[in-house]
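Please produce the structure of this protein holding phosphoenolpyruvate.
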Amino acid sequence: MEIQINAKKSLMGLIKVPGDKSISHRAIMIGSIAEGITEIEGFLRGQDCLSTIECMRKLGVDIDLNEKLVKIKGKGLYLKESNSILDVGNSGTTLRLIMGILAGQNFETTLTGDESIKKRPMGRIIKPLSMMGADIKSRENNFAPIRIRGGKLKGINYKMPIASAQVKSCIMLASLYADKKTLIEEPYPSRNHSELMLNCFGADIKVDKNIISCYPVSKLYGQKISVPGDISSAAYFIVASSIVPGSDVTITGVNINPTRTGIIDVIQKMGGNIKISNRKIINNEPVADITVKTSSLKGIEISGEIIPRLIDEIPIIAVAAVFADGTTVIKNAEELKVKESNRIKTMTRELKKMGADIIETEDGMIINGTHCLSGAEVESYNDHRVAMSLSIAGIMAEGKTIIKNAECVDISYPGFYDTLNKL
Ligand SMILES: O=C(O)C1=C[C@@H](OP(=O)(O)O)[C@@H](O)[C@H](O)C1
Ligand SMILES: C=C(OP(=O)(O)O)C(=O)O
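Below is the modeled complex.
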C-alpha cells in the first residue's frame, strides 16, 4: 500500500497513542507463565504483539482477546510443547524474550519469522542461554530459524557486551527457572519494563545501578495490567508538533519511564517546548500527559549513555534535525544497523531523496539543518519506524510525498495515519 502525504499547516488537538509495545509483549508472556488470571487493558493490537499472543497460544496458553481486554488463563511456569513452529513475524522482542521462557521448558521448540527477523543477530541470546544450560541450534551465524531444547538451568553471572533490553529480559526470564541467583551487568541502563513487571507478578528482581540480581521463583501470580501509551509512538507527534509552525498538541496517558524518555530530553535540549502534566504511577510504571508546542530547534550531539533510552526514536530525531539550526551528530548508535532495517542506511538514503543534508557514518548520522525538504517517492523497507518518520518528514515537505509499503506501520502503530489526519 502506498500512502500520499501532503504538507500540513499546523497540528492542534488532544490525542492518545496506542499501548506500549514493550509492556504489551511482557504482559502477555509473564501473564502466560503466572498462575491464575491476568487481565490486560490498553494492550497494543499491533502485529508484533499479536505474534506474541499466537506463540503463547501454541504453547498451550488460553488467551482471549476482546474489544476491551486481553484475558490470559496463566499456565504457570511450565508450558505445553507446541506441535508446530512458532512464527514471530517481524518481532525481535517476541523471539528474544520467548527464548528465555523456552530455555526453562523440558521440550524442544522451533521458531522462525519474516525475512527481516532471519537477518537479525541471535548470538547475543544464544550465548547466555547456552551458558545457563539450554541446547540451541540455529541457522549458520546464529540466525533464525532457531531450535531450542530447554531444561534445568544454572544461574550465571553475565556481563552484557551491549545495552539491550531484549537480551537482558531474555536472561531474566530464563533466570526464573534457574537453580540459583543470576547476575546481569549492563554497560548502560536499557528499558526496565521486565524488572518492574516481574516484580508486580511476585518475582524477586533487585536492581543496583546497572547490576540486576534475579532470583529463581516457584510461581508468579496473575495480575491486572493497564498498558500506558507508547512513548515511541508519541515520538512522531512530539517531533511533528515541535517543527510544524503553530502547533499545540497534548498526548495523554504516555509511559514516561526514565529508561524511555531520551526523546523528551533530546527535544528539550534542542530547544523544544514540552510540558509534562498529570503524572501517575500505574503497575510500577510512571504515566503522564505530554504537551508540545512549536519551537525553534538547534542541532546537538546525541551519543553515549542516552542511546539506549531513545534507540527506536533515532529515525524521527533525524527528521527533527533537518528542521533545526546547525548540525546534529548522532554517535554510538550502531545497534540501528540490526533493527527491522539498517536504520542508519535507510533513513539517510530516503531523507536524501527528499533533499536533506545528511551523511551516514559508521555508528550514526550527521545532519545539517536546512529547514526544507521536497516531496518525493520514498521506501519504507517494510520498517514501521522508517515509514512513520518519513511521513512526518512528508508533512513538512513542499509538494507531495509517497510512502511505499506504508502498511508496515501496523506493526507498532495501527491507526497512525488516522491520528495524523485528525490533527
Ligand atoms: O525490550 C524491548 O521491548 C525492546 C528493546 C529494544 O531492542 P534492543 O534490546 O535490541 O536494544 C528496542 O529497540 C525494541 O523496539 C524493543
Ligand atoms: C526494533 C523494534 O522492535 P523489535 O526489535 O521487537 O522488532 C522496534 O519496534 O523499533
